[in-house]
Amino acid sequence: MGKLKKLVATACFITMTIGAVAPAEAALKEKDIVWIGSRVYNAGNSFKASEIDMEGIYWETVIYSSRDNSKMQLYFCKNGKRTGFVFEEVVPLAEGKFFFVSENMNTYEGYILDDEGNKVCTNLKDVADHIGIDSKGYHISNSGVERDRFICGETKDGLVILDTKNNCKVLKTHKGYVLGTNDEIYKKKVNNTRYILITNKKKTKRGFMSLSQKSGVSIIIANNLKLEADLLINNEGEYRIAVPQRYDSELNLYNTKGRLIWSGKNKTVKGVGGNILDTPGDPFAGILDPPKGVNKRYKENKIIFLVQSRNDKYGLVRDDGKQLLSYKYNEIREAYKDKAIVLDKKYLFYMVNYKGGKAASKKYNKIYGFYGGMSKVDNDDKYGVISETGRELIKPEYDEILRLKSDEMILKKGLDYIYRYKNGKDKVFAKQYENIEKLPNTQYQGRSLFLVTNNGKFGIMSAGGKELHKTKYDYFRVLDKQNGVFSLICRKNGKTGGYLSEIIVDKEGKKIFEINNTKSIERLASGEYMVMKGKSDHKDSGIDEVIIYSADWKKKLSIKNRWESILDYDDGLFIVRSKDDYYGVVDSTGKMVLPNKYSWVEFNLNLITVKQKYDGIEEIGFLVR
Hints:
WG repeat-containing protein; mainly beta; 5-stranded antiparallel beta sheet; 55% strand; 625 residues; WG_beta_rep; signal
């Protein structure tokens, strides 16, 4: 199939940004389904061929492809217009308000369409939207360019900057340049600025352009470089140019004015770390080209290179060319502020500072890495804590360190769990638990909650050691990781047999709701909860009722189950499945909106996608809500 860019991750951002959809009460009519094509099956329901594939839904525009001619088509829901299967490439722009399309990626006949199919910009070969290649050689498709206001496109005259808020008006033309040979966007945004890979027209020399997403200002910051040159950017938007001399390992380092500030002749760069945009989690785990990810843990540093000399020893070099550590270490594992974690000949870990390479800590079997100014250390399978200066805060005499923060620690010694306050005082938990772990809670910054187990039962404890919910519950589940909503479930026996009683617990450990006979609870994208209820806890017992609760556990509506199962809910509509394995849609009163006749039904933003199978063919279509 042709090159389809940026369609994989887009559904996530649209879920967050989409406006109000048509109310569920609006009449949905089966006759309004738009059928876009079909799939053909062999015996046994395996695909013989997939003629039509749904590629993406962007607000009120649907993109789908045909393997018959390896081309894509756009359907504009606003007016029902179809383009035909003519495009090799489709790039959504401005959150689905525009689309760059190309019928032939080797010509300058590409153009931009608005969300009604009207041309607003022509004579383009490509737009800068592609970033990176992963370790398997696949293109990375989450640059986020579909949310950018200012876009860089390629024309015969050179590169143009387009303003999507002004109907893709051309703001500036950079003559003599084309987009990069592999990746158009070189890095993810930093300080609201894109860095775009460019080349000369012959594609023999490489350069870089910056494009501000605040002002639309675009600047050629480097050109006339080797094609292997890297732009190394830190999290403040400062950058250096790294140009390999040989095999992408020996490199020269240039400053922003093009002056050589470090020569790597006879030296091999084995990794890069520090305050760099696009760095692996372990700063020296990856080879320099290409660096990936943003490592916020090292924001205090400049960019740092791990360099191996001819004697196979390692040292550190900063991005301004300064030698931080000389070439005398067997291994260097981590750089932190003005220190590094190194290994001696016996592979023991210790810290050294950059001033003369003086030791800054004792030696340990392992130093794990710094979080919030502290690191766990291992000394013969006993654990302790050191500070970022190398001072031993806790002697390595504990069996495990379960939590390590400046204001609280959870230590384990023997069967005891010990909570250590900020003032250094200890509290040994009165009860010996089998296990204790911190509950996920992304936003809440108060005292933590801990899940504790004893004899296979679950409970919840405060960070201070108080047991908020006794260890008597049979099951535990996380309902909302971001805001900290959990549930504890207990098996009980009633007149009709066993059933489940479930309590909902908030981020402070308070019980906010209780419900019986739950089979499952699902948090929906809207923040609401869909609760499946059944009379028995037996695994084969069915769902009797489905209830929708608001985010604060106020009952909104319920529906009695008359089907084999109720699968999903969205804005007053439920997807249901019949006993003969067909799908349909009902409203909040249980009235059928789409009959149980489809092989698949799915809510997809403001559309309902459907599939209908017969005689070895499955048709694919959608219905606008």
